[in-house]
User: Fold this.
Amino acid sequence: MTVTQREFAVASNHHYKTLTLADPHKLIDGRAVAEKVYAELRGEIALLKASGTTPGLAVVLVGDDPASRAYVRSKDKMCRELELHSVKLELPANTTQDDLLGQVEELNRDPAIHGILVQSPPPKQIDEGVIIRALDPAKDVDGFHPINIAKLALGDLTGFVPCTPLGCLRLLRESGVAISGAHVVVLGRSMIVGKPLALLLMQKGNDATVTVVHSRTRNLAAITRTADVIIAAIGQPGFVRTEHVREGAVVIDVGINRVDDAAAPRGYRLVGDVAFEEVAPKTAAITPVPGGVGPMTIAMLMANTVKAARLSSSTSGASTVG
Ligand code: NDP
Assistant:
């Protein structure tokens, strides 16, 4: 089933409703692009294994937040599907910062582990910034360590770029959206999405003209209406309306927000930061939620893990797992 033929199920697992886009050519299918990334990675993983390196990812979860647990499960499952070495560490909610730092140190030293991810948010007794700084930057596949943020700002390709921004860029590329010279307006300035995304888009080679707007921005709609590409990452359900978008713009919706829906099996549904149904007809291309940026984030995590393994095997000789 291709995007150009199908009625696109906007709801994951078709569980609440199905939207039909009048022109399905417009839909940017994150699941399909993620599959393409996985196909490429499988080739690279096979080559690494043949030379004695099995890429390894450790995901650390502290506490029992259900959403975090689900994210960790899906990352572990994807590692298994790609036949990577996967370690899932589940620590109790009362884990101390020192205990967690001890675990991170151990993983930093483990030659079978190339990527480490500490699932966010940790419980309140743990300072996330301290944990991120304790990670070996060469294993920081989330790209949040100051060294990796600096490398992104410098355009140093040996660093790791946070997964969601990387996923947005890949979606744009795969959809044939020319961003060189284009005006891209990013909504949101978080360290996970907005800020690194702006740095990535303006890098030489990507060459976008970037504007970042946030909660203090005046005349936000007047700014977004000048955008060739809008990327929304603000965590505000359905915030971007037709008045924010000029005819023919491309819209990437990073938002994943739960809204109550008594008709949905779980009592809620997931919506983006964009009012999809009203905005889509005005766009040249748009991502749905779910099925847009979400699948790309995990694909880019796998890509960063494979990159970490490649960089480590080229600098320190092969490490073997299992
Ligand atoms: P944060 O809460 O960390 O940051 C939100 C940003 O949006 C802030 O910069 C804030 O501005 C800005 N903002 C909030 N409200 C408004 C408003 N009314 N107008 C303009 N700007 C506003 O969120 P995240 O970046 O972590 O996440 C954003 C969204 O993306 C969430 O829905 C999240 O679930 C989703 N997400 C999705 C991922 C995926 O894989 N698809 C991955 C990561 C996040 P200010 O700085 O001024 O407070």
Remarks:
- Residues 52-142 form a domain with the Rossmann fold fold (CATH 3.40.50.10860).
